[in-house]
Design a protein that fits this description.
This protein has 187 residues and is mostly beta strands. Helices cover 0% and strands 55% of the residues. The protein has two domains: 16-100, Glycoprotein, Type 4 Pilin; 115-185, OB fold (Dihydrolipoamide Acetyltransferase, E2P) (Beta Barrel). The protein is built from no helices and 16 strands. β7 (85-90) and β8 (93-100) form a beta hairpin. It is elongated and about 55 Å long.
């Protein structure tokens, strides 16, 4: 039996409790499907609750309409940069979000030694390279800039290490998951 999912990619069943971190602030968010089609949800955190109508656009983005906020409408893009790590595009702004179900650690420990492939978080065009092979980098340091939907998105190093390879060039068109830079950790 194949499980159906709705426009938001959630299975239409029991409420989901998610741990959502935005700008260092962690909240427990409950998302509950309230119709058979899975296009209407109740989303709540702290003392806040919204009903949200969701539909997937042809572009792959989500259209969110919030009836209780004067039918405010938002187009949201979502790109997973690592398991549980998302970059959301909302109203021309880029928001980094970490989402877990509360059962696994919020952070993934860095590997001891080895290469770390740093990938494009979304389809776009490489507009700047900020490093070259041999450069020493720190966690969070910019490695490249990818332009997507007229927004520039800096791709950062997940670890401290040395850049061993730059696989992208300025002007390259890249898809999600394409390796841009490899960083080797210090042993």
């Amino acid at each position: 039996m194949q499980r159906r999912s709705n426009a938001a990619g959630l299975s239409p069943r029991a409420p989901k409790r998610l741990h959502v971190e935005v700008a260092g602030e962690l909240r427990v968010v409950t998302v509950e499907s309230v119709d058979r089609n899975g296009s209407r949800f109740t989303v709540s955190w702290d003392a806040t609750t919204y009903d949200v109508d969701v539909s997937r656009l042809r572009s792959g983005a989500l259209s969110l309409i919030v009836p209780s906020a004067g039918h405010a409408s938002y187009e949201v893009t979502c790109h997973e940069t690592a398991p549980g790590e998302l970059v959301l595009g909302v109203g021309g702004r880029r928001v980094r979000v970490r989402v877990t179900d509360g059962r696994r650690p919020r952070t993934v420990p860095a590997q001891a030694g080895g290469d770390h492939a740093v990938v494009a978080p979304m389809p776009g065009r490489v507009v700047r390279l900020l490093v070259e092979p041999g450069d020493t980098v720190q966690p969070g340091q910019g490695l490249a800039v990818v332009e997507a939907m007229k927004m520039e998105n800096e791709v950062v190093s997940p670890v401290a290490g040395v850049v061993t390879e730059v696989r992208a060039a300025v002007g390259d068109s890249v898809d999600v998951g394409v390796v841009l830079v490899e960083v080797s950790t210090h042993d």
